[in-house]
Write a structure and sequence with these properties.
The protein is an alpha+beta fold and 838 residues long. Helices cover 21% and strands 29% of the residues. It folds into 5 domains: 1-37, no CATH class; 38-270, Immunoglobulin-like; 280-356 and 404-433 and 465-610, Glycosidases (TIM Barrel); 618-704, Sandwich (Immunoglobulin-like); 724-836, Golgi alpha-mannosidase II (Immunoglobulin-like, Sandwich). It contains 16 helices and 51 strands. The strands form 10 sheets. The protein has an 8-stranded antiparallel beta sheet with strand order 2-3-4-5-19-16-15-13. It has an 8-stranded parallel beta sheet with strand order 31-30-29-26-22-21-20-32. It has a 6-stranded antiparallel beta sheet with strand order 1-11-12-18-17-14, with no helix packed on it. It is globular. Bound molecules: ligand MIG.
Length: 838
């Protein structure tokens, strides 16, 4: 066969060109053009204009606009082709995006830009390089010299200088070490069953990270929903970069200097986790699946009979008829509403799974399909037909969650479950997972955006993929609020995007019953908390496989100090409830679950702070102790497995939890108490190092000095009213304080002011300690009438006195290095003075 003459000529030309280097380079350029289109790069500033709230710069065909939303928050947008992209976001709140402050124009011979009360922003004249500094001149973020933003058609990448002493945290529960240095991550929500320590991507995409350098923290939120990538010095030493396959260059820089402030600014920008119902802090029991009503009742009875405090039981997909969402299998669950009522009497809440894939069942009387078709609510193929993909129900259709009207329709599907009293809903498989080799929908699947704040348009699946799960649980959350406006919704989601914390809590997906996975839960949950997802958990005991007895015990111990404590496992694994390995293991596990219930006032107070400020429940050390090390590098880099549960409790599992070797715990400067024994274990101006010899009975926990922790009498569920006094555990030391928040734990009345707060303080002088108990603030009436005060640091007897009253003897408890006393609580403030017997 004869080749086309033109093709021959071209091929000859190529041969000639390949004869010299220049030709090869040209050839490379041609290929590059063929695959990526034209390569645009920013050059010198050609024009600039000071704006009241920032600066607009032209560089060749690109426009750079940098504006200040607040004095400590700037937004950077770049449009390569003479215009800025559509100003819309699934994540950033409209209120935040519309915020603005006036800036002071500040340009000189080297750059154009502005200053705010805290920041100096400059675009370098010769290169258009963006440099953001604090007003002392410290660089917070700068485009890497010689590495201008790169555009390849729709995709782009931004390069930043990466100092050797800067550390990176966040990006949700991406696996690997806590610090993101030397790692690269792709954001593409993926059903990642069996993920391991190097698997990427996994379920969620949260393009937010903290850059921590010495005492200064800066947050970067790169608001791009397309498949994106972050590289922290893996590709190029000394440079970190981020880019996406499409969308707009649109990112926010949130200045600290302390990391806590950055996290609260991120909550201002994308929302905080709403206060969950109190029961969600209890122990939760799940498996794939409790297959029959009889088995669910058996689990409930056994939890109560064995006195394992617990609040929730989950129904995984097998309760449904042929895995069809919003159905109940009448054979397996013949008395579903009655079962819910009976379990409620035992103080159990039921959470049902409701996956987003709707069975493709035309003309079968399946209401979710019929009403969805009638409302044109399902995702379509490029040719306009309905997209059908295989998932649990078989051929399935998928709601177009990027339409407000579709989300509203989805919300109505919960009507029956809500009226029957199902307490929470579990949105799984919403990456969206499809049982095809790509694991999801074809990338050219069109999605209809029909949405306040957005242009009404059709977007490709690559743009929508990473927000699909978030819009799914948003539909659930908003639907539940409509159906029961005064109840706090509980939604658990597997996939999400930045800002998704407003709608659902999350778990880390299908982990494994291995020691390494137990170890991995800590950095995963810490990084989730640093990325807005402050209320999250990992399957306790591990999902894939069956844990050995000691592994399950260690896991239950650790989860006591994690935000969500849910035991869950896969189909076909052995039973994994607390009792499965005999009484000795069960007693050990029960002790920890009980401790979690005693700590509920402290945990719930921390959660309320989370709902206002975005601060996570589990915290890396640097968040509370940014100056622990002499050069202010995060102490977390040195310790590995330690973390804080709330502001005051340091949890210190072994760095390798199956190792029986002694290990070292590092405690930041100051006094520390052993939470279990009450003994003072460290003090001084330097970091203390404690040697711990692992034993299965104890997960080491320490309390920092100056802490007052509220605890309550043990109950078997959060629905039970505690009997007895509220207890305040007082650990004297510097800056001694504590607080307590209470409300009804169920409704949204707290948003209208029906709650109670108390503030506590203490002061040590010589051999006495003054404890201040603040008055009840607010209208909510709590359950206790008395307060028991436990003051640590006493090995002998002591007396105590209230103002104008004669001293009385406190109860000595030298075994726990404390004295105890009880006072009536009439809601008024009181001061108690405790003095050691001479
Ligand atoms: O493809 O609903 O991560 O927690 O038990 C498996 C069954 C689907 C995956 C979830 C897991 C859940 C399981 N689901």
């Amino acid at each position: 066969m004869n080749a086309h003459p033109a093709a021959i000529k071209t091929s000859l030309e190529y041969q000639e060109m390949c004869n010299d280097l220049r030709g090869m380079l040209l050839l490379f350029a041609i290929f590059t053009n063929l695959s990526f289109g034209s390569v645009a790069k920013l050059g010198a500033v050609s024009n600039s204009k000071a704006l009241p709230t920032g600066v607009r710069v032209t560089s060749g065909s690109a426009i750079i606009e940098i504006t200040a939303l607040r004095d400590d928050v700037v937004r950077i947008r770049i449009g390569p082709n003479r215009q800025l992209p559509e100003d819309a976001s699934w994540a950033a709140l409209p209120s935040a995006r519309q915020a603005k402050v006036n800036v002071t124009a500040a340009s000189d011979s080297s750059g154009v830009g502005f200053t705010t009360k805290f920041l100096r922003v400059q675009v370098e004249r010769t290169t258009s390089r963006i440099v953001v500094k604090d007003l002392q001149g410290n660089i917070l973020q700068e485009d890497a010299p010689g590495w201008p933003v790169e555009f390849h058609d729709a995709s782009f990448r931004i390069y930043k200088t990466m100092p050797d002493d800067e550390h990176y945290f966040g990006l949700g529960d991406k696996v690997g070490p806590l610090d993101r240095r030397q790692q690269s991550f792709t954001l593409w929500n993926t059903d990642a069953f069996g993920f391991q320590e190097s698997t990427d991507p996994i379920y969620k995409s949260i393009p937010f990270f903290l850059a921590v350098r010495g005492a200064r923290a800066t947050g970067i939120f790169f608001d791009d929903t397309w498949r994106s990538n972050f590289d922290f010095g893996k590709g190029h030493h000394g440079i970190y970069s981020y880019g996406a396959e499409g969308g707009a260059i649109d990112y926010y820089l949130l200045y600290g200097p302390d990391a806590k402030h950055v996290l609260s600014s991120y909550a201002w920008l994308t929302g905080a986790t709403p206060l969950p119902p109190l029961w969600a802090f209890g122990y939760q029991q799940s498996r794939y699946s409790y297959e029959t009503e009889a088995r669910v009742r058996e689990i409930a009875d056994k939890l109560r009979a064995d006195k394992i405090p617990s609040d929730a039981i989950y129904l995984d997909i097998d309760y449904q008829q042929n895995n069809r969402p919003f159905t109940v299998d009448p054979q397996k669950f013949p008395h579903f509403p009655q079962m819910l009522e009976d379990l409620k009497k035992q103080d159990f809440r039921i959470v049902t799974i409701t996956d987003l894939h709707i069975a493709h069942l035309p003309n079968a009387g399946y209401a979710p399909y019929d009403s969805g078709m009638a409302g044109d609510h399902f995702v379509k193929n490029p040719d306009g037909s309905t997209y059908v993909g295989p998932v649990w129900p078989g051929p399935s259709v998928f709601p177009e969650f990027t339409r407000q009207s579709t989300r509203e329709w989805w919300g109505t599907l919960y009507k029956d479950f809500v009226s029957q009293g199902v307490a929470g809903f579990w949105n799984d498989m919403n990456e969206p997972a499809v049982f095809v080799p790509s694991k999801t929908m074809p990338e050219n699947t069109p999605h209809r955006i029909d949405e306040p704040g957005f242009k009404t348009r059709v977007a490709s699946h690559v743009e929508i993929h990473d927000v699909f799960g978030m819009e799914n649980c948003r539909a659930t959350y908003e639907g539940l609020l409509k159906l029961a406006p005064n109840q706090r919704p509980f939604v658990l989601t597997r996939a999400s995007y930045a800002g998704g914390q407003r709608f659902a809590s999350t778990w880390t997906g299908d982990n494994s019953s291995t020691w390494n996975h137990l170890r991995m839960t800590t950095p995963m949950l810490l990084n989730l908390g640093l990325s807005g997802f402050a209320f999250s958990g990992a399957d306790v005991g591990g999902f894939a496989g069956t844990p050995q007895p000691d592994l399950l015990t260690r896991w239950i111990q650790l989860a006591t100090f994690q935000p969500i404590d849910r035991n869950h496992t896969e189909k076909g694994s052995a039973d994994q409830e607390p009792w499965v390995h005999g009484p000795e293991q069960e007693n050990n596990r029960r002790r920890y679950i009980e401790e979690r219930y005693r700590l509920l006032p402290y945990l719930y107070t921390t959660a309320e702070e989370m709902s206002r400020t975005g601060l996570p429940i589990v915290r890396p050390l640097f968040l509370e102790f940014p100056n622990a090390t002499s050069d202010n590098h995060p102490l977390d880099i040195d310790v590995g497995s330690q973390f804080l549960f709330g502001p005051d409790l340091m949890v210190a599992p072994a760095p390798y939890p199956d190792s029986l070797k002694p290990y070292e715990v590092q405690l930041p400067p100051g006094d520390w108490y052993d939470y279990w024994t009450g003994a003072k274990v460290a003090s001084g101006e330097k970091i203390s190092v404690i040697a711990v010899k692992p034993n299965l009975d104890t997960l080491p926990v320490y309390v920092r000095e100056g802490t007052i922790i509220p605890v309550q009498p043990l109950t078997q569920s959060t629905n039970e009213v505690p009997q007895g006094p509220l207890t305040l555990r007082v650990y004297p030391g510097k800056n001694c304080k504590g607080s307590l928040y209470q409300d009804d734990g169920k409704t949204r009345n707290y948003l209208k002011g029906d709650f109670m707060r108390m503030q506590f303080a203490c002061e040590a002088a010589g051999n006495s300690v003054k404890v201040h108990i603040g008055a009840h603030e607010g209208t909510y009436k709590p359950w206790w009438l008395q307060i028991q005060v436990e003051v640590y640091g006493y090995d002998s007897t002591a007396t105590y006195s209230l103002a104008n009253a004669a001293p009385q003897a406190a109860i000595a408890d030298p075994e726990h290095h404390r004295v105890l006393l009880t006072v009536a609580d009439d809601g008024q403030a009181k001061d108690i003075s405790v003095t050691a017997a001479p």
